[in-house]
Amino acid sequence: MLLPFFKACEASVIGETIRGSFWLFPAIEAVHLIALSIIGGAVLLVDLQLLGFGLQDQPIRNIARNAQPWLIGSLLMMITTGLLLFFAESVKCYYSDAFWFKMSSLALAILFAFTVRRWVTLADEARVGPVWSKVTGLVSLALWFGVGAGGRWIGFS
Amino acid sequence: MYPLVESVHVLTLCVFVGMASILDLRLLGWTLRGVPVSELTDRLMPWMKAGFVVMVVSGVLLFYAIPVRSYQNIFFRVKVIMLILAGLNAFVFHATIHKSVLEWDFAVKPPPAARRAGALSLALWICIIIAGRMIAYNWFDCDKQPQPAVINAAAGCVIAQK
Question: How many domains does chain A have?
Answer without folding.
Answer: 1
